[in-house]
Amino acid sequence: MTVEIEPRVVEALRALGVPYELVPIDPDYADTTAFCARYGVPLERAGNTIIVASKKEPKQFSACVVKATNRLDVNHAVRRLMGVSKLSFASAEETQALTGMMIGGVTVFALPPDLPIYVDDRLMGLDWIILGSGSRSSKIKIGPEVFRRLANAQVVPALSVEVETGPASV
Q1: Which end of the chain is more exposed for a tag (fewer CB within 10 A), N or C?
Q2: What is the tens place of the pLDDT at every residue in 113-139?
Q3: Does an H or E element contain 81, and which?
Q4: What whole-number distance in Å separates Cα of residue 53 and Cα of residue 15?
Q5: What is the DSSP secondary structure assignment for residue 19, as one 8-state letter?
Q6: Residue 9 phi, psi (nearest 5)
Q7: Topology of domain 7-160, per CATH?
């Protein structure tokens, strides 16, 4: 199997100077729930990068990273952070146009430099997490301290809500 990782993601990781492990996967299992089930990774170790969009023009976007076991608090926490009245999850088309990445591979690395990144503080207590690699054929295993090195990232308390059943929407 050929392992793909976006060259711009590799460059972003090099620039951050943090150790990481590239985990090759079958692209058919790139979505978080399928990946965790197939590769035996606990859902609470997976971080979903979710692109959120304002509903009114001019469109505003942000990237949010939450545990796969949590639900992003779009209507309260993210709306407040972005300072807009109405939000929704960006469509797959909007996500790809903004990030150059497909759903199932979206990562916080190599995003547009002016895109705000909000990271749920619940991720920070883990010693490692799984994130997208910019490609559906691999994941990145990395320490959450990497978020503190991203210039446009902000660690936010209560960015998500814990859910009792199933993973966060992706």
Answers
A1: N
A2: 999 999 999 999 999 999 999 999 999
A3: helix 79-82
A4: 28
A5: -
A6: -70, -40
A7: YbaK protein (3.90.960)
Q: Are strands 129-132 and 70-72 parallel, antiparallel or unpaired?
A: unpaired
The helix (H) or strand (E) run that includes residue 79 is helix 79-82
Q: Which of 29, 24, 34, 28 is CA-nearest to residue 167?
A: 34
- Which helix (H) or strand (E) segment holds residue 47: the answer is strand 47-54
What residues does each domain of the chain span? 7-160
76 phi and psi angles, rounded to 5 deg: -120, -70
DSSP annotation string for 91-153: PHHHHHHHHS--TTT--STT--TTS-EEEEGGGGGSS-EEEE-SSTTEEEEE-GGGGGG-TTE
**pTM above 0.90?**
yes
Which amino acid, residue 156? V
Sheet strands side by side (includes 129-132): 20-24, 138-142, 129-132
At 31-90, the pLDDT tens digits run 999 999 999 999 999 999 999 999 998 999 999 999 999 999 999 999 999 999 999 999
